[in-house]
């Protein structure tokens, strides 16, 4: 089924904390993830809005380090908060991604939810992205054994899963390292709490 396509400028100002961005990468690591998971998606990140900062921000964990973290004011890989505008623009310019898709989160956003999000970010913001071996080990330990790996590093889906868990949106049925980008697509039904749900993917373009 064809996905809806919308200009980024049309939806940019409507994006809310908790909305997700799925990405279809073009590098070798992305291709491996897509083959293993049998899904087009190789990366997932979450929108956050911070008062006083105009562009929507993206909360993600990535091996990339070419954008400045808007809170730490330094370029870094791993867990980071970057401008979504820049992430989309440079991702396409560097030919890192083929498709960006948005999934809107439908839920009543409470102060407790936002406070929990802020506290979680403060606790993990400096964590690095795992090495290839650490990533594989952590993911397989979560997927096959249902066990949590050391939290000394975080891969993309693990970060988003744990973020949702701390916000009280996602059940603790699985450890955070059980999740992959595919699990945040409409191919999978997530064990949401608080009547939360994600809308179907919308492809965002900025040409």
Folded structure, characterized:
The chain has a seven-stranded mixed beta sheet, sandwiched between helices. Strands 5-6 form a two-stranded antiparallel sheet. The chain contains six helices and eleven strands. The longest helix has 14 residues, at 111-124. The two termini are 23 Å apart. By secondary structure, the protein is α+β, with helices and mostly antiparallel strands. The protein has a single domain (4-205), classed as Alpha-Beta Complex (endopeptidase fold (from Nostoc punctiforme)), CATH 3.90.1720.10.
Give me the strand/helix succession: EHEHEEEEEHEEHHHEE
| Poorly predicted spans | none
Task: Please state the second-level CATH architecture.
Answer: Alpha-Beta Complex
Strand order, largest beta sheet: 1-11-8-2-3-4-7
CATH superfamily: endopeptidase domain like (from Nostoc punctiforme)
Summarize the structure.
By secondary structure, the chain is α+β, with helices and mostly antiparallel strands.
Keywords:
207 residues; endopeptidase fold (from Nostoc punctiforme); seven-stranded mixed sheet; 11 strands; two-stranded antiparallel ribbon; single chain; alpha+beta
Itemize the secondary structure elements and their pairings.
Elements lengths: L3 E4 H4 L8 E6 L2 H10 L5 E6 L8 E6 L5 E2 L4 E2 L2 E6 H10 L3 E7 L1 E2 L4 H14 L7 H14 L10 H11 L30 E2 L3 E4 L2
């Amino acid at each position: 089924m064809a996905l809806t396509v919308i200009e980024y400028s049309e939806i940019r100002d409507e994006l809310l904390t908790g909305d997700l961005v799925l990405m279809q990468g073009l590098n070798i690591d992305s291709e491996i993830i897509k083959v293993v998971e049998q899904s087009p998606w190789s990366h997932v990140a979450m929108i956050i809005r911070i008062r006083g900062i105009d562009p929507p921000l993206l909360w993600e964990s990535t091996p990339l380090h070419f954008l400045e973290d808007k809170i730490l004011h330094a370029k870094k890989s791993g867990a980071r908060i970057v401008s979504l505008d820049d992430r989309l623009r440079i991702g396409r310019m560097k030919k890192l991604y083929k498709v960006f898709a948005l999934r809107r989160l439908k839920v009543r956003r409470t102060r407790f939810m936002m406070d929990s999000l802020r506290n979680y970010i403060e606790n993990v913001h400096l964590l690095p992205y795992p090495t290839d071996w650490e990533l594989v080990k952590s993911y397989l330990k979560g997927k096959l054994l249902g066990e949590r790996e050391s939290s000394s590093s975080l891969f993309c889906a693990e970060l988003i899963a744990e973020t949702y868990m701390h916000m009280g949106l996602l059940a603790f049925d699985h450890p955070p390292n059980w999740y992959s980008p595919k699990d945040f697509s409409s191919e999978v039904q997530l064990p949401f709490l608080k009547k939360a749900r994600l809308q179907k993917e919308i492809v965002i373009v900025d040409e």
